[in-house]
């Protein structure tokens, strides 16, 4: 009798295990969802040249992140759709399933890693500070920022960096393009953005100046964000990124996008 109870108990445990593993298998496989749909939906905030910006001729979103997105879609054998939104809304769009992945020069921070997963880093930049040309001799060191107003994009690592600067006031806005206007009108004294972005805006606005102040201890590495627990999709993305890095294509995409930014200026 005792033995039978034991066997019964084991059978029940095995059955529970089966049911549970069955439930697990029902977990959504993001990779399959994308392939079935035949389209990869990428979220981005196109105010960050040369990463992503609007082509003034066509109104289309272009940039080196977009070239990488095209390669990911190509390797998956699906079409690509780009959804534009404010940077601070990107992770919510990802977790609610409004987009499949995010490419937006996004840095994988521990805080963000609580809600999403990240690919390998595909590009790294230092943080730079731009000011109005009239202030190029006024703001030449970190100490000069005391009592000044620093503009940063909402929800970015730059907002965190600015918050650490002694004596400075931080102004957070949703779009970098608006921050650039604020700087041109001297409503803010400086902006912090990743160096390639600083160079792009300075190249296109001759009233702006790139200071030699950098915050290089803060790594602005960019990675692709995906929904948590999508190992199949993540592996495919890392495969594409590795191919692009091995073929030196990311550097080429960065150069091409930067040339495009500079050509738009003329
Ligand atoms: N790398 C910074 C961050 O992750 C800024 C990214 C801003 N990207 C954009 N497309 N506006 O917080």
Topology:
Layout: H1 2-25, H2 30-37, E1 39-44, E2 53-54, E3 61-62, H3 64-76, E4 79-84, H4 90-95, E5 101-102, E6 116-125, E7 127-132, E8 149-153, H5 157-163, E9 169-173, H6 176-184, E10 190-194, H7 195-204, E11 208-214, E12 220-227, H8 231-246, H9 249-265
Parallel strand pairs: 1-4, 1-5, 8-9, 8-10
Antiparallel strand pairs: 2-3, 5-12, 6-12, 7-10, 7-11
Helix pairs in contact: 3-8, 3-9, 7-9
The chain binds arginine.
Whole-angstrom Rg:
23 Å
By CATH, the architecture of the largest domain is named: 3-Layer(aba) Sandwich
Q: How many H/I helices? A: 9
CATH-defined fold name of the largest domain: D-Maltodextrin-Binding Protein, domain 2
The largest sheet is: 5 strands, mixed
The CA-CA distance between the termini, in Å, is 90 Å
Question: What would you give as the CATH superfamily of the largest domain?
Answer: Periplasmic binding protein-like II
Which stretches of 5+ consecutive residues score pLDDT under 50?
none
User: Helicity level, as a percent range?
Assistant: 40-55%
Helices and strands, in order, run as: HHEEEHEHEEEEHEHEHEEHH
The count of β-strands is 12
Query: Which structural class matches the secondary elements?
Result: alpha/beta
Shape: globular
Mind telling me the CATH class of the largest domain?
Alpha Beta
How much strand?
15-25%
Ligands in the structure?
Answer: arginine
